[in-house]
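Recall that a protein's primary structure is simply its ordered list of amino acids. Everything else, from secondary elements to tertiary packing, is in principle encoded there. The following example makes that idea concrete.
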Amino acid sequence: MTGPEETDVCVVGAGPAGLALTLMLLRSGLRVTLLEKSTTFTRDFHGEILQPGGQRVLDELGVLAGARSLGARDLIGFQVLEGERLLLDIDYTRLDAPYGRLLALPQRHLLKTLLAACRRLPGFTYRDGHRLTALTEYDGRRAGAVAVGPGGHPLTVRAAVVVGADGRFSRTRALAGIDAGRTEAFDQDLVWFSVPAPGRTTRHVRVHRAAGTAVLVHDTHPDRIRIGWTLPHRSWPAVAARGITAVKDRLARAVPEFADLVAEHLTGLADLKLLDVFAARAPRWTRDGLVLLGDSARTHGPLGAQGINLALQDAAALHPVLVEALHAGDTGHTRLARFQELRAPAADAVTRAQRFQAKALLGTSGRVATLARAGAARIVTGTPLGARITAKVAYGTAPVHVRTDLFQHTGPGPADAGGADPASPAPGAARGKTTRLTP
């Protein structure tokens, strides 16, 4: 094992939340080591719909335009259809500029842009291809990590605080002995795929309701549509057993306007990606020297396109908590728990809303149910109350801004700037004997 790396913050997971937080901390003059188990950003079926709240966080970080330039699609709102009948039309252009839209931004474009911005700043160390294997303790606090890199070579990182941003199946959370808090809040699973669709734009995120199912459709870059087919929970094995022809027939009935594309481009079951839909909320997001961020702390379903936006806003909320804790030399649970106090209510509000949306959009059919949905749709579509509801969905119940006043580097730093001396201690970093922790 080589000698340990010294840093201020060790972030585990180079997803949107982990990279956005890393960039904020670097611009605040802190050193960050980012561990990522993958060596690529090939994540075709990860969330890519950015609500206005998420767009604003990225814009305040100065990376939204760069990510858009790699390829994205503007979407003007949500629609719900039953057959040819339009039940709901939520128009995002009613929101204030410049974020009066949804943005379908492939996650690889976002991650590439965030990583490039981090690399231009001093104090950044990126360790891709490194899988977390243990958390470490110094003076009784979790303050570091051990990872295995390419070739099986171990790496120890010493830090004042570790941030677990490694997703809904978080290794960091498991090693810290924190329960995921998973609940089967939804009765659906989701099967995703995408097909080429030149000239077939929808300009919306659409939910097509059909007998016993619903299909989500939206444009994506480049000239493709993404299709998400909802199914009763745990029913996919039985559906798949009938073969790809039966699958294509059911999809053609549900979304007849895209039946030709499904028939031509859906060639086998391997083209489909099953998403395990569940809700989760860890009972605690912090311990001494440890914070869980984004999906590591709470997981939501895909309805309403909220996951990535909450993660970006979580990062913006955690940034000042960490900066102040490091400057005070105190990364204990009591100080870090302020993050959960700030963001848990927003996460809980999304879970409640998604349960309601699942019942309203994906629930039973029939004349009474359809009339009830139509009445609710009229409120959301055409009244001041509906405009306020749209703004809540777009920005969240507790909108967050990036604390740019804490930045020392207001823009990209010099491309050749080196990091701080890796042998020097991190501000506020604990010292002492390393103890390997087990779950």
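The chain has 13 helices and 24 strands. Residues 412-439 have pLDDT under 50 and may be disordered.
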